[in-house]
Amino acid sequence: MSSLAWIDFDEAERQRAQRIMALFQERESRDELGLGSIRDSIADHLFPGTSTIQTRLRYMLFVPWLYQSLEQRGGTPSQLKAEARTLEVRLVEALKNGGEIRGIIGREAGVKLQRLPSSVYWAGLGAWGIRLFPGSIESYFTGLLRRRTRHTQDEAVTSAEAISSQRLWAKALPPAPPKLLDSTTFHLTNDEAGFIVDRLISEQPNSLLTHLAQYRIEAECDYIWEHPQRSDFPGKAQNLVKQADRFSAVMHGASLLYNLQLSELREHDGWVSFYQQRIADWADGINHKNIQDWAPDDFWKTVEHPAHNIRPATRRFVVQWLEQVALGAGRISASASARSLVKERERRLKSSQSRFSNRAVRDRWTGASGADRLSFRWSQAKSHLRDLAYAG
């Protein structure tokens, strides 16, 4: 029996709430029309363990290294948590001392840092099999106290059993570099990169992220469907990327129409002209054959993911928008039915906080919200792949 009794029934909800709060701080990621469950389902298939607030790949090692250093210390869970925070704040200075400029979590906040790297990477560490226990950060510290108490009281536990029951991190985790908290960088060694790739192969063998990581493939493109080696992707990944491209392209029009209508309500001529032009450009780029060939039932089966529930109302909205686009993308901005579809969708989602219904909320709108194409966390995956490619 494990010496850690992980009891944290609300961990999934806690992590989901953190993701939602993060989205509200990223203007381009705002989910005004309730497409987040589809977006995240696709992203978790393609790039599992990533999130929009991750920065650099070596944090996947920094966090377990720092936490390992606490596992032999005494103290209450609250004391250990405070020590962990101190270590993570020290890491900020160590990265600065190492000459890093971009990607440092807490570079400006310093000791006032609110979102620690551990909270940003915790779910990813579990998804990649680097973190072996299932609990939250809070239950981790409680578990350390329980483990020490049990092994102090139970002298019958053999050395082998103790080692097995204490396994909190992957066995092959590379050792922390000396003087980690004095000066360090985001540069991965070959051993560290190999460990991460091995974890992906073991835990996420079918993901596109694993395929790209395994062969150290990196590319500078804005979207995964623009990848120069797309034709070499595994078959399932190619199909998912195709579906992601089509969904992103089609639903981008709904987001633009949402922003156009708010611009009109705000009577801001510059914004109105901007979104009218963007919708015209979007309509010109729509592949009508793709729309005709799109089978929604196949799409829902392809993107289905156990961690995300795509509600019937969301599916209906997507299908109804697809029908509007099929009638003619060029007429969308002037279409009363398309405008009403978008407006009513946002009203149902936000109720009294709808920008269409609540003028005070609308007046705080700054001219752009969810106005970019969905990219399904390719930016974060691309950064991680670049770090792997330059390891050594």
UniProtKB/TrEMBL annotation:
<dbReference type="InterPro" id="IPR045941">
    <property type="entry name" value="DUF6361"/>
</dbReference>
<protein>
    <submittedName>
        <fullName>Uncharacterized protein</fullName>
    </submittedName>
</protein>
<dbReference type="Pfam" id="PF19888">
    <property type="entry name" value="DUF6361"/>
</dbReference>
